[in-house]
Structure formats: structure tokens, C-alpha cells
Amino acid sequence: MTSLEFSFAIEQLSHSLRPFALRLTKDAEDANDLLQETALKAIVHQAKFAEGTNLKAWMYTIMKNTFITNYQRLVRRNTFIDTTENLHYLNAPSQVTENLAYGAFTMDDINKAFSEVDDTYKVPFLMYFRGFKYHEIAEQLAIPIGTVKNRIHIARKELKARLQSYRKG
Question: Which residue numbers delimit the RNA polymerase sigma-70 region domain (predicted)?
Fold first, then answer.
């Protein structure tokens, strides 16, 4: 694929990427920036795109990873570390400490709900949760990658149903 064809394909995909960018950023201007940054990264890294693979999926992955990187950068930038000798902020009455019992009850409920999930779905879900990639899970369990994705999806769905009481709104 020539650079011109590649650029044209990216331009055509921008219309389907925009709703995803809006869902991620929750702001039209930020979505436009994310879309532009995604297109730029795709063009710069055109050589890394394997001909014959799904360009749309590749672009979605670039967008998701760009959003995550930007979000982490924003969080680090907004983190305030007090290095002064004065402990005024630590002892200010506006600081509230929550009772950790709520967290313990929540963890108990999560563990109970998770123990009720069938091992067929639990094992791939746990591996994914621990950071394994889909293809690594598929290799380890000797099952197709589509089956791995399906089992993880079912485990999430079951956990969501069992933990319905924690749903907000």
C-alpha cells in the first residue's frame, strides 16, 4: 500500500473512529485532538502496519493506547506531593479518613461472586486480569483465541450480574 493509499484509508476511517474518541474523552475538542494524534501516529508508524491485517483494528488500538498514555501523563502531572516540613495539610480538619470496613465487605462480596464463576471462565479471566495477553492465554490453555475472549467476556458478565447491588445510579 502506497503512502497516499494509506493516508486515504486513514481519512476514511476517521469517521468511524470519532465516536470511539468521544466515548473515551467525553469532550468534542479532546476527541478531535485524540483523533488527530492517532492519525499522526498511524502515518508516522506506517511501516509497522502489516499489509493484509485489519487497519481499523490497528487504528482503534493506537487510539486506545494514546488515550491511556495521555491520561496517565495527566494524572502524574496533577499529583501533588507535599515536601514541606510543615504538616499543616496533613493535620487539617478537611481531611477525612473513611472506615475501611466498606472495602472489606466489598472484597468479600467480590470473592464470593468470583468463587461461583465456573473454572472454565474463571481461569482465562484470572490470567487476563494478571496481565497475560489473549494469545498467551490461548497458548497456555491450548484453546483458540476467540474462545479465550468469549470466556473472559462471559466471566465479566457473570460477575457483573452477581455484583448488581454495587451498580451506581
Answer: 10-74
